[in-house]
Write a structure and sequence with these properties.
This protein has 414 residues and is α/β, with parallel strands linked by helices. It is built from 14 helices and 15 strands. An 8-stranded mixed sheet has the order 2-9-8-7-6-3-4-5, with helices on both faces.
Length: 414
């Protein structure tokens, strides 16, 4: 009898819906020659958002210097640039040794969880969330505990719900700000409230701020770690979104605040950084140029900028469909609309996304894929150009009209 090789039991309850079964279905359809409108992944390059030339040139010029391993924390100029950036945004007392360069924020998130979590430790994570956080906690043997982000309050975290979910096993709280998938940019009093909770309960704050420059309508982003020196913070950033360099896999994490309480944890994180030898070196030569040069993202999010116009378009088109509501995003690259399932012949957000793909060849991601607490949301990426977004919205509108319950159709006509 032949032996079957089974995956680790740790993976049994883990998922990553952004590249899950519906994504696999889309790949099958494309392999059959079908044309799919992809609104599922925040990947700027396929939609004409190029890395700034200056960043590309500096990385190419330094390729010969990038042939060998570098220091496991990252090359000095990259870490120095990140350190200077912390001074600009108000995070105090950060030294070169407090900065870790990684192969994108994704790698650093997994390392951050592996360095901290013992079996059954609990980590507070927003709902909805970027699902890698939930998966990284589970992969590390911990228990993700989701707290409510309130749609009625522009998707800001619910402080009472956070506090109600803290137990003796809670080790940390995760923030994603600006938020993926909702596009929320958290208000200062909410951030201050979370920091006070963390201080009161002696929790680490992991703040994912990868979209910190993608802001609309004059909104200002407040780095969580700028609000206190009495809490230990790990702040994540990188090149992928602000600089449209997702394929470069260049990210960093900054340790700040009450570092004296985290000596053991940082030793563990340092060990994990050493074990992967180093982050990819060519990309690190782009970091200093990116952070110190002209910030081209500002043009894209300005009132006449492409991202701003596409955000406005997708929000208008979605909210123009009876039965769809949507909080207008203040940052990031996504909208997170809500379907009133009572008005449509649809069972859930997953049913919606699968049928929309099958019938109209439009790929979005269900809200449950982001650990949303209901089954009535979906995420749309607004990176494609306006013509493509209009074409997609025509398809979504047509699909929902096909699925609209008859009584609801008569109400609209009247």
């Amino acid at each position: 009898m032949s032996k079957e090789y089974l995956k680790s039991e740790r993976l049994n309850n883990l998922s990553y819906a952004i590249r899950g079964p519906i994504f696999d279905k889309a790949q099958q359809l494309m392999a059959q020659g079908q044309k799919i409108i992809n609104l599922n992944i925040g990947n700027p390059a396929p939609f004409g958002f190029d890395v700034p030339d200056e960043i590309m040139q500096d990385m190419i010029l330094n390729l010969r210097n990038a042939q060998g391993y570098c220091h496991h924390l990252g090359i000095f100029p990259a870490r120095k640039a990140v350190m200077h950036y912390t001074q600009q945004i108000g995070i105090k007392d950060v030294t070169i040794e407090d900065i870790f360069i990684g192969n994108g924020v994704s790698e650093l998130i997994v390392m951050a969880m592996q360095a901290l979590i013992n079996p059954n430790d609990e980590i507070l994570i927003p709902s909805p969330d970027y699902p890698l956080w939930t998966t990284a906690v589970g992969l590390s043997g911990g228990k993700p505990v989701h707290y409510v982000c309130d749609e009625e309050a522009d998707w800001n975290p619910d402080l009472k719900d956070i506090e109600s979910k803290i137990t003796s096993k809670t080790k940390a709280i995760v923030l994603i700000n600006p938020n993926n998938p909702t596009g929320a940019v958290y208000e200062k009093d909410i951030l201050e409230g979370i920091v006070k909770i963390a201080e009161r309960h002696q929790l680490i704050v992991f703040s994912d701020e990868i979209y910190d420059k993608i802001l609309y309508d004059g909104i200002k982003h407040i780095p969580t770690a700028s609000l206190s020196e009495d809490v230990f913070f790990m702040t994540f950033g990188g090149l992928s979104k602000n600089y449209r360099a997702t394929g470069f896999r260049g990210g960093w994490v900054i340790a700040s605040g009450a570092k004296h309480k985290a000596k053991s944890y940082l030793e563990g994180f340092n060990l994990l950084a050493s074990m992967r030898l180093c982050a990819n070196v060519p990309t690190q030569y782009a970091i200093q140029t990116a952070l110190g040069g002209y910030q081209s993202i500002n043009d894209l999010v300005a009132s006449e900028g492409r991202l701003r116009k596409q955000r406005d378009l997708i929000h208008y088109r979605l909210t123009d469909i009876p039965g769809i509501t949507c909080v207008k995003p203040k940052g990031a690259l996504y909208v997170f609309p809500k379907i009133d399932l009572k008005k449509f012949d649809l069972e859930s957000d997953e049913d919606f996304t699968l049928q929309l793909l099958t019938d109209h060849k439009i790929l979005v991601v269900s809200g449950t894929g982001f650990n949303c607490m209901d089954n009535q949301h979906f995420r749309v990426v607004f990176l494609p150009d306006s013509d493509t977004l209009n074409l997609a919205m025509d398809g979504i509108s047509e699909f929902l009209n096909e699925k609209r319950i008859v009584a609801e159709q008569e109400t609209i006509i009247v």
